[in-house]
Amino acid sequence: MPDAERTGVFDALREATQRLAATSDTARLDAELLMAHALDCSRSDLLLRHMTDEVPEGFAALVERRATREPIAYILGYQEFYGLDFTVTPDVLIPRGDSETIVRAALDAAPDAKRVLDLGTGSGALLLAVLSELGQAKGTGIDASPGAIAVASANAANLGLADRAEMRLGDWTRRGWADDLGRFDLVLANPPYVEDDAALEPDVRDHEPASALFSGPEGLDDYRVIIPQLPELLIETGVAVLEIGATQASEVSEIAREHGFTATAHKDLGGRDRALVLRLTLGKGESSS
Description:
Blueprint: H1 9-20, H2 27-39, H3 43-49, H4 59-67, H5 72-76, E1 78-81, E2 84-87, H6 100-109, E3 115-119, H7 125-133, E4 138-143, H8 146-158, E5 165-169, E6 184-189, H9 202-205, H10 221-226, E7 234-243, H11 249-258, E8 261-267, E9 273-280
Parallel strand pairs: 3-4, 3-6, 4-5, 6-7
Antiparallel strand pairs: 1-2, 7-9, 8-9
């Protein structure tokens, strides 16, 4: 159908795409996702069935929020990760596809894990994705943010995993935080690892929680706190899988070796180091990288 015959949604999408082009590399996709959200339909339904509908009330306000660089996931209220839908709010980092590397590395390294601990659980994405694959496992998610614990608990319930996933407040920088946790087959962690003075896109810097992003001048402060505590959290043959920044494999591996671990880096789909698998040195662990 020629553009001249299009009305309503079609024209609004075109105008929204133009509005967002200055601040987004995915302006058309953003506009379509926001329109589908406003219409309470899927994006595919939007494109197939609603292009000549009247523009829903509230769409313009959604576009303006995105124009200020507010992330799409916060506007929509959810983000897909590992094939699962997770509620997200500004209390938690938005789960990213690169972090699926941690899930895959964890499942490969500890396919029989029965007890899983997730440090800095945020939305619960890592823990709940792993539990969705390990049907007999139970897990505990730790976070220092009450808002994050609320989001993670809601996600566990929404995914039917509340009976196997406990979310609890905890701060690994405080004495005694892990006294009643016991030991685990698998420990996951996506700690803050961004350098304090790192240049970040406004979408991240101005909207995602700083406490979950920044970790000292080198981005290593939280690794220096977490890794020395891992021997008391893991069973003897347990595995820890840490998310790392793309240039941090060497530094974090060295911290791990200083505390009795071998370390193996796993790359994300972009070919960047993303996951570090740690095992206590028993003479038969993975060779270090």
